[in-house]
Amino acid sequence: MTTLAFQDLYPDELGHCYGCGKNNDHGLQIKSFWEGKETVAHFEPRPEHTALPGYVYGGLIASLIDCHGTGSAAAAAYKANGRDMGSEPALRFVTANLNVDFLAPTPMGETLELRGKIKEIKEKKVIVEITVFAKGKACAKGSIVCVKMPASMMPS
Ligand SMILES: CCCCCCCCCCCCCCCC(=O)SCCNC(=O)CCNC(=O)[C@H](O)C(C)(C)COP(=O)(O)OP(=O)(O)OC[C@H]1O[C@@H](n2cnc3c(N)ncnc32)[C@H](O)[C@@H]1OP(=O)(O)O
Questions:
Q1: Is residue 1 domain-resident?
Q2: Name one GO molecular function term (predicted).
Q3: How many angstroms separate the alpha carbon of residue 52 from the centre of ligand 1?
Q4: pTM
Protein backbone atom coordinates (compact mmCIF):
# COMPACT_ATOMS: atom_id res chain seq x y z
CA MET A 1 0.00 0.00 0.00
CA THR A 2 1.39 3.42 -0.94
CA THR A 3 1.06 6.14 1.67
CA LEU A 4 -0.05 9.42 0.17
CA ALA A 5 1.78 12.59 1.18
CA PHE A 6 -0.19 15.18 3.16
CA GLN A 7 -0.10 17.48 0.13
CA ASP A 8 -1.52 14.79 -2.18
CA LEU A 9 -4.67 14.94 -0.05
CA TYR A 10 -5.17 18.67 -0.54
CA PRO A 11 -8.12 19.33 -2.83
CA ASP A 12 -7.26 20.27 -6.43
CA GLU A 13 -8.36 23.88 -5.97
CA LEU A 14 -5.72 24.24 -3.22
CA GLY A 15 -3.00 22.47 -5.18
CA HIS A 16 -1.36 25.55 -6.75
CA CYS A 17 0.97 26.63 -3.93
CA TYR A 18 4.53 27.30 -5.14
CA GLY A 19 5.99 25.24 -2.31
CA CYS A 20 3.59 22.32 -2.05
CA GLY A 21 0.98 22.42 -4.80
CA LYS A 22 0.70 19.13 -6.63
CA ASN A 23 -0.74 21.09 -9.59
CA ASN A 24 2.10 23.62 -9.83
CA ASP A 25 4.48 22.33 -12.49
CA HIS A 26 6.99 25.09 -11.73
CA GLY A 27 6.77 24.69 -7.95
CA LEU A 28 8.75 22.67 -5.41
CA GLN A 29 6.02 20.04 -4.90
CA ILE A 30 7.25 19.16 -1.41
CA LYS A 31 5.83 15.93 0.05
CA SER A 32 5.43 15.42 3.80
CA PHE A 33 4.70 12.27 5.81
CA TRP A 34 4.39 11.12 9.41
CA GLU A 35 7.33 9.25 10.88
CA GLY A 36 6.28 8.39 14.40
CA LYS A 37 5.44 11.65 16.18
CA GLU A 38 7.53 13.67 13.74
CA THR A 39 6.79 14.78 10.21
CA VAL A 40 9.40 14.31 7.52
CA ALA A 41 10.03 15.57 3.99
CA HIS A 42 12.94 15.27 1.59
CA PHE A 43 14.00 17.65 -1.15
CA GLU A 44 16.90 17.75 -3.56
CA PRO A 45 17.76 21.36 -4.46
CA ARG A 46 18.23 22.05 -8.15
CA PRO A 47 20.96 24.24 -9.72
CA GLU A 48 18.57 27.21 -9.86
CA HIS A 49 18.27 27.02 -6.04
CA THR A 50 21.89 28.15 -5.62
CA ALA A 51 22.90 31.03 -3.33
CA LEU A 52 26.69 31.08 -3.60
CA PRO A 53 28.19 28.38 -5.79
CA GLY A 54 27.97 25.10 -3.90
CA TYR A 55 25.43 26.35 -1.34
CA VAL A 56 21.65 26.37 -1.16
CA TYR A 57 19.66 29.61 -1.28
CA GLY A 58 18.18 30.48 2.12
CA GLY A 59 14.86 31.54 0.64
CA LEU A 60 14.39 28.05 -0.73
CA ILE A 61 15.08 26.61 2.72
CA ALA A 62 12.50 28.99 4.20
CA SER A 63 9.97 27.92 1.54
CA LEU A 64 10.53 24.25 2.35
CA ILE A 65 10.05 24.94 6.06
CA ASP A 66 6.93 26.98 5.28
CA CYS A 67 5.18 24.25 3.31
CA HIS A 68 6.37 21.34 5.42
CA GLY A 69 5.07 23.38 8.38
CA THR A 70 1.59 24.13 7.06
CA GLY A 71 1.22 20.53 5.87
CA SER A 72 2.33 19.26 9.27
CA ALA A 73 -0.14 21.59 10.98
CA ALA A 74 -3.06 20.28 8.92
CA ALA A 75 -1.99 16.66 9.51
CA ALA A 76 -1.63 17.27 13.26
CA ALA A 77 -5.08 18.90 13.44
CA TYR A 78 -6.68 15.87 11.74
CA LYS A 79 -4.80 13.52 14.04
CA ALA A 80 -5.83 15.47 17.16
CA ASN A 81 -9.46 15.20 16.01
CA GLY A 82 -9.12 11.46 15.33
CA ARG A 83 -9.95 12.00 11.67
CA ASP A 84 -8.51 10.83 8.36
CA MET A 85 -6.66 13.59 6.54
CA GLY A 86 -8.76 14.83 3.66
CA SER A 87 -12.11 14.12 5.33
CA GLU A 88 -14.73 16.89 5.47
CA PRO A 89 -15.05 19.45 6.95
CA ALA A 90 -11.52 20.34 5.88
CA LEU A 91 -8.93 21.58 8.36
CA ARG A 92 -6.71 24.01 6.47
CA PHE A 93 -3.86 26.15 7.76
CA VAL A 94 -1.89 29.11 6.42
CA THR A 95 1.30 30.72 7.68
CA ALA A 96 0.90 33.52 10.22
CA ASN A 97 4.55 33.71 11.24
CA LEU A 98 7.77 32.08 10.04
CA ASN A 99 11.19 32.37 11.71
CA VAL A 100 14.29 30.70 10.34
CA ASP A 101 17.78 30.40 11.86
CA PHE A 102 20.47 29.45 9.35
CA LEU A 103 22.87 27.41 11.46
CA ALA A 104 25.41 26.31 8.89
CA PRO A 105 25.93 26.65 5.11
CA THR A 106 23.70 24.14 3.32
CA PRO A 107 25.62 22.23 0.63
CA MET A 108 24.23 21.71 -2.88
CA GLY A 109 24.18 18.16 -4.25
CA GLU A 110 22.63 16.63 -1.12
CA THR A 111 19.08 15.54 -0.39
CA LEU A 112 17.77 17.77 2.41
CA GLU A 113 15.73 16.20 5.20
CA LEU A 114 13.14 18.26 7.07
CA ARG A 115 11.93 16.96 10.40
CA GLY A 116 8.97 18.63 12.09
CA LYS A 117 7.80 18.52 15.70
CA ILE A 118 4.38 19.73 16.75
CA LYS A 119 5.06 22.14 19.62
CA GLU A 120 1.57 23.50 20.30
CA ILE A 121 -1.82 22.58 18.97
CA LYS A 122 -5.03 24.52 19.50
CA GLU A 123 -8.29 24.52 17.59
CA LYS A 124 -7.25 27.53 15.47
CA LYS A 125 -3.45 27.56 15.79
CA VAL A 126 -0.63 25.03 15.44
CA ILE A 127 3.05 25.76 16.08
CA VAL A 128 5.59 23.51 14.33
CA GLU A 129 9.36 23.44 14.79
CA ILE A 130 11.36 22.16 11.84
CA THR A 131 15.01 21.24 11.49
CA VAL A 132 16.64 20.94 8.08
CA PHE A 133 19.49 18.44 7.78
CA ALA A 134 22.08 17.91 5.01
CA LYS A 135 24.28 14.82 5.32
CA GLY A 136 22.93 14.41 8.89
CA LYS A 137 24.04 17.91 9.94
CA ALA A 138 21.47 20.48 11.10
CA CYS A 139 21.79 23.46 8.72
CA ALA A 140 18.63 25.41 9.57
CA LYS A 141 15.90 25.52 12.16
CA GLY A 142 12.50 27.08 11.68
CA SER A 143 9.49 27.83 13.80
CA ILE A 144 6.15 28.36 12.09
CA VAL A 145 2.86 29.58 13.49
CA CYS A 146 0.02 28.16 11.41
CA VAL A 147 -3.52 29.53 11.73
CA LYS A 148 -6.76 28.19 10.25
CA MET A 149 -7.19 29.49 6.74
CA PRO A 150 -9.66 32.41 6.63
CA ALA A 151 -12.75 31.67 4.52
CA SER A 152 -11.87 34.75 2.44
CA MET A 153 -8.73 32.96 1.13
CA MET A 154 -10.65 29.99 -0.23
CA PRO A 155 -10.76 30.13 -4.06
CA SER A 156 -14.29 30.62 -5.37
C1 LIG B 1 -6.25 17.31 3.38
C2 LIG B 1 -6.89 18.49 3.74
C3 LIG B 1 -6.03 19.55 4.25
C4 LIG B 1 -6.26 20.77 3.50
C5 LIG B 1 -5.10 21.64 3.63
C6 LIG B 1 -5.26 22.71 2.64
C7 LIG B 1 -4.00 23.44 2.56
C8 LIG B 1 -4.30 24.83 2.35
C9 LIG B 1 -3.09 25.59 2.22
C10 LIG B 1 -2.41 25.27 0.96
C11 LIG B 1 -1.50 26.36 0.63
C12 LIG B 1 -0.29 26.26 1.54
C13 LIG B 1 0.09 27.52 2.02
C14 LIG B 1 1.51 27.59 2.29
C15 LIG B 1 1.81 28.57 3.26
C16 LIG B 1 1.46 30.04 2.78
O17 LIG B 1 2.27 30.48 1.99
S18 LIG B 1 0.06 30.69 3.25
C19 LIG B 1 0.22 32.35 2.56
C20 LIG B 1 0.85 33.28 3.54
N21 LIG B 1 -0.04 33.56 4.64
C22 LIG B 1 -1.06 34.41 4.54
O23 LIG B 1 -1.31 35.00 3.49
C24 LIG B 1 -1.87 34.63 5.77
C25 LIG B 1 -2.31 36.11 5.88
N26 LIG B 1 -2.79 36.41 7.23
C27 LIG B 1 -4.05 36.12 7.62
O28 LIG B 1 -4.90 35.74 6.82
C29 LIG B 1 -4.38 36.30 9.07
O30 LIG B 1 -3.53 37.27 9.62
C31 LIG B 1 -4.21 34.98 9.86
C32 LIG B 1 -2.78 34.42 9.75
C33 LIG B 1 -5.19 33.93 9.31
C34 LIG B 1 -4.48 35.21 11.32
O35 LIG B 1 -5.79 35.67 11.41
P36 LIG B 1 -6.28 36.38 12.75
O37 LIG B 1 -7.72 36.68 12.59
O38 LIG B 1 -5.33 37.48 13.08
O39 LIG B 1 -6.06 35.23 13.79
P40 LIG B 1 -6.49 35.28 15.29
O41 LIG B 1 -7.79 34.55 15.44
O42 LIG B 1 -6.43 36.69 15.82
O43 LIG B 1 -5.32 34.47 15.97
C44 LIG B 1 -5.36 33.08 16.12
C45 LIG B 1 -4.09 32.72 16.87
O46 LIG B 1 -2.97 32.92 16.00
C47 LIG B 1 -2.05 33.84 16.59
N48 LIG B 1 -1.50 34.67 15.53
C49 LIG B 1 -2.19 35.34 14.58
N50 LIG B 1 -1.33 36.00 13.78
C51 LIG B 1 -0.09 35.76 14.26
C52 LIG B 1 1.23 36.16 13.86
N53 LIG B 1 1.42 36.94 12.79
N54 LIG B 1 2.26 35.73 14.59
C55 LIG B 1 2.10 34.90 15.64
N56 LIG B 1 0.88 34.48 16.05
C57 LIG B 1 -0.19 34.90 15.38
C58 LIG B 1 -2.87 34.64 17.57
O59 LIG B 1 -2.04 35.17 18.60
C60 LIG B 1 -3.82 33.59 18.11
O61 LIG B 1 -3.14 32.78 19.04
P62 LIG B 1 -3.88 32.25 20.38
O63 LIG B 1 -4.34 33.48 21.10
O64 LIG B 1 -5.05 31.40 19.93
O65 LIG B 1 -2.85 31.47 21.11
A1: no
A2: thiolester hydrolase activity
A3: 33
A4: 0.97
